[in-house]
Amino acid sequence: MRTTLRALVGIEHPILGFSPSEHVAAAISRAGGLGVLGCVRFNDPAELDAVLHWMDANTEGKPYGVDVVMPAREPAEGAAVDLGSLIPAAHREFVEDILLKLGVPPLPDDSPAGDGVLGWLHSVARQHVDVALAHPARLIANALGPPPPDVIARAHSRGMLVAALAGKAAHARGHVTSGVDIVVAQGYEAGGHTGEIASMVLIPEIVDAVGGQAPVLAAGGIGCGRQIAAALALGAVGVWMGSAWLTTREYALASAAPALRDALLAATSSDTVRSRIYSGKPARLLRNRWTQAWAEPGAPEPLPMPLQNLLVSDAHRRLMRSGRPDVVPMPVGQIVGRMNEVRPVAEVMVDLVRETDETLARLGGLG
């Protein structure tokens, strides 16, 4: 798989792997891809700094990236305590009522208070950027389109590439105009925040729109070598994968939460739903009794980002601690139907590369 991405990023295989786990991201880099660490979970920039120091020491000198969540324009926002006052009492009552009906126990009395995921806040994301720029990360990606112009300029001054996710060709054109180096064409099938156009349609549209100006990665519905080969056939120079790593041995969260692991392993490709209940923006999640409760008649509309995540943050902790696969809150793509066993990242990478090479060779013989 000799694509332009290999030389541009300095990796052996054109596979970028997103994960909130530093252990997964580092393992992807060691295996010849580019591990991209999701930063949104880090409320404390000092914790992110410590984790990136760990990444520096555990990637064997191979490149890695970071992923932040920030809009191109800085919004008005407040502190978590201020934002909490904007959450309607009726929404809080609804969440408590769901948890009661589902039989989810409260958190233990000695559980530390949670602030929710503050990485959705622009001010916190900027701190993530400041921390990342002090480390030798090769790439900084943004899930909400191009970062602000000053962030792009600072990244480029450090020799860092900038990537941005796009769900429409028009978005991709705007990304390139803003100075983004790599466009990630993310189809509807993807886990987490995603748009409305399927990968088979979206990838060639974005390649046709900007492929002559910036390399395009394919994302959404990619979990095996045949799908990587398909992405390359559609004009992408590599792939961006996220959900596929959730059932790897290195994914510590799943290891510590057997109910989550069991839910992922048992799910089919039909067991996801696109909803705003996780963060306030449309995101694909594992379908279960928690997501279904929000779809019932009389359920309130989810709040905008970041209020929705602040609303459900304690509920998420309770649901995860419940030990029940039928309620765990988890962003995941439709590729979950292929995630049927727990394997090390290195083994997953070997199989991805092998099947891609075999598929490309088979297709080459059809001419």
Task: Walk me through what this model shows.
The protein has helices spanning 4-9, 22-30, 45-58, 80-84, 89-102, 122-132, 149-157, 169-178, 199-210, 225-233, 252-256, 258-266, 289-294, 307-321, 345-364; strands spanning 15-19, 34-38, 64-68, 139-142, 161-166, 182-186, 192-193, 216-219, 238-241, 272-275, 283-286. With 367 residues, the protein is α/β, with parallel strands linked by helices. Strand 2 (34-38), helix 3 and strand 3 (64-68) form a beta-alpha-beta unit. Helix 10 packs across helix 15 (345-364). The longest helix has 20 residues, at 345-364. The protein is globular and about 60 Å long.
Topology, please?
Layout: H1 4-9, E1 15-19, H2 22-30, E2 34-38, H3 45-58, E3 64-68, H4 80-84, H5 89-102, H6 122-132, E4 139-142, H7 149-157, E5 161-166, H8 169-178, E6 182-186, E7 192-193, H9 199-210, E8 216-219, H10 225-233, E9 238-241, H11 252-256, H12 258-266, E10 272-275, E11 283-286, H13 289-294, H14 307-321, H15 345-364
Parallel strand pairs: 1-2, 1-9, 2-3, 3-4, 4-5, 5-6, 6-8, 8-9
Antiparallel strand pairs: 7-11, 10-11
Helix pairs in contact: 2-3, 3-6, 5-14, 8-9, 10-15
